[in-house]
Every structure is written in structure tokens, then in C-alpha cells.
Amino acid sequence: MDQSDKTDATGKDIRAEVLFGKIAEKSNYNIYKALFEQHYSRNLSETEFAKLAKFHLEHGLKILSDNILDKNFGRVSHYDFLFSLIKKGFELIDNTKSTTLNSTFEVKKDIPAYSQVISFDLGTTEKREPLTIRINDLKEFDSHHIAVAGMTGSGKTEIVKDILYQIYQQTNGHLNFIFFDYKGEGKSEKISPFLLSTDCEMIDVLHDGFAINPLSYISLKDERARRYNIKSFIDAVASIETKLGTLQKHTLQTVISRCFEKRDKNSHPTLQDVFEELHNHYEENNIKIDTLYTILDDLSRDLFRISNEENPNSKKIYEKNLYLSLPKTLSDTLRQLFVFITLNYLISIFNSSDDVVPDSERINPLRYIIVIDEAHVYLKNKNARKILEELLRVIRSKGVVVIMISQ
């Protein structure tokens, strides 16, 4: 329908390159004008096009405004709604898989979410009334992420364990969690009651290894996405091991790419495969053992074992409760690398699922909980801090709660 006679041409003038953008220093004005002419099936004068462009812009902004107001978005969560629209727009432009942050598995994952309100008690108020937190009620909180801070020995970790226990009881074990224990308590009597009461599997990372393949999110079919995915893995490593230089990062990119080229199109190389390829590369080129070689050797030999996760009879990482103990016999660098590589893997899993959508009562469905103990260790690192900030932003719309424990 021709709406040109219903629009108001008054208002602030905006330059065409600002409104329509530029590609290679050339304005997109003519592209948009051609799209409008195709839509209205006639040639448009410059004046008509200007009026219609303003009409469509105002109409679109009104739709967005109405949607945000109708859904009663909080101060921050409306950003997720806007980003989801932008993401859908990119998917319309390009049918290939999205290659956003730590991009996704080939197959869209249908990860169930717990849709009822989830609450837990944090003691009592001064009036002896229960202090109850409704963590996924958007009428009370814009975000479901949690920060627990306090001095050493103040009971931060115990509070978080109690929160997890309450959530486990309330959801009947349907909202699973992963707990990164940076202090490495091990299978002590102190931790056993928590493990038993939450049906949680304890893994001593050094002794048991972690049976996932952290490269399994990398695209097998889309070469462009694969390059980006490999880069995201290298960035996660380099954010912690800052000694890796440009040449070493390029070498790692080359080696991982070569491993994918040697595999068939239906399987991923493991870190063990990558280390073997790196070892051969170093021998062939007479390269001395360096930081990259040592780190990849430690990660592939001790921390990440070949995964049986593809076995349909085995539970996925997000289908069980896990307590990952990182013993102090591991260096700080290795412990931090393990956490960030695993986070990178988890982000990729949840990025391959749809966004969660609040119900009419503004209860936001939740899928998973990630607990990062001793978070201040990572927050001191500028590069690691940037990745954590992006984690909190990106994963929120997927119904994932991040709990950070810090001094």
C-alpha cells in the first residue's frame, strides 16, 4: 500500500550515508531506493523515496517500542531482544551458519529449559523475614547472573553450594550446573555431602582428565566458519597464555587447520591429534620446544582426554552436574587455560540453541548454571576479563546463569 501521502516529511535531516550506511566508501542509498521501487512496483522520485524511507523507519521503531513495552523488558534485557533481531537479519542475508562469538555446532541443539520460577533463601532480614531471591523473575532482576564477594574464609563458596543445593531440590535436578573449583579441594569429606545431595560428579582434572573434545564446536562443512572458530579457540588460549606471539598463534592456526584437512568431513580432530601434528611440524622445521609446544602437550596429555561424548548413550556435559577440581599441583596458567577452553566449549554449545523467551509473567526459562570460583584471578587479566564480559552478555539470552565467586 502506498503510504507516501500519510507520512510527515518534517523532522531532523539525516545525511543519506548516515541513514543507509556505506560499503567500500560508497553509499547504500541506491540499493535501498531500488529495494523500495521493487517493493512498490514503480519508479520513485527522490522526494517520494525520502518520505517512504522515513515512514518505514518510524513504523519499524514503533513496532520495536511496542514489543519492548508489551514484554515489560527490564533496564538491560531489552538489549538481548534487539540483538536477536539483528542476528535474524544476518541469517536472512546469509544462509550459512552464524559465525558470531565462538560459533556453533553444525546441528541446532534442542536444550531443554526449566520454565518455572526458581527461588532460593539467603537467610533472614533484620525483621526475621526470609530473604528470598527469585532468580529468573525479570520483574525483580534484569539479569540472572550472580556475584558473590567476600574476604578469604568468609564462606563464599559454601553459600554458593547451598544455593545450588536449593535449586537442585526445587527443580528436582532438572537445572544442571558445572562448578570450576580453582582451589582444587579434591574428594575431601568437606565436599562429599554436597556431591551426594546434588547427584554431582566430581572430576579431579589432573588425575581423571576431562572427557570432552574442546574442538568439536568447529565447523566441518563451512570453511569460512571453521577459520573463525579456530581463531576463537586460539584467542581463548592466548587470552591466558600471553607469551604466545604472532608467529606461534599462526603456527597453531596452521596446525589445527591441517588436522581438519586430514580428517573426514564427519569427525573432529582432538587436541591429541593437534599436538602430534605440532610435534611433527617442529621436527620438520627444526623448531625448539617453546611455550606453545609445552602448553599443548600438557593440555592434550593430562587435561583433555579423547571424548566419548558422541556416544548416544552417554550424557552430554549440560545434562549432568559436574564439579571440576583443579589441583594446585597444576600451574596457574594451566588451570586458567582449562577453565577458559571449557567455557569456550560451553558457549558454543548454548550458542547453537535458541534464545529463551520469558512467559507472560516475565519468568525467564533457565537451562544451566556455570560457577567460576576465584574469579578475581581471571579478572586481573585484561584479555581474560574481556572474554568474561562477553560471556556474561552473550550467554544470558540462552538461559544460562553465571555465578562468580571473588574476593
Explain the overall architecture.
About 30% of the residues are buried. The strands form three sheets. Strands 5-10-9-6-8-7 form a six-stranded parallel beta sheet, with helices on both faces. It has helices at about 15-20, 30-40, 45-70, 80-95, 155-170, 190-195, 205-210, 225-240, 245-260, 270-285, 290-305, 330-350, 375-380, 380-395, and strands at about 20-25, 25, 120-125, 130-135, 145-150, 175-180, 200-205, 320-325, 370, 400-405. The protein is α/β, with parallel strands linked by helices and about 400 residues long. The protein folds into three domains: about 5-70; about 120-215 and about 305-405, 3-Layer(aba) Sandwich (Rossmann fold), CATH 3.40.50; about 225-235 and about 245-300, no CATH class. Strand 3 (about 120-125) and strand 4 (about 130-135) form a beta hairpin. The model is unreliable at about 1-5 and about 95-105 (pLDDT under 50). It has 14 helices and ten strands. Helices cover about 45% and strands about 10% of the residues.
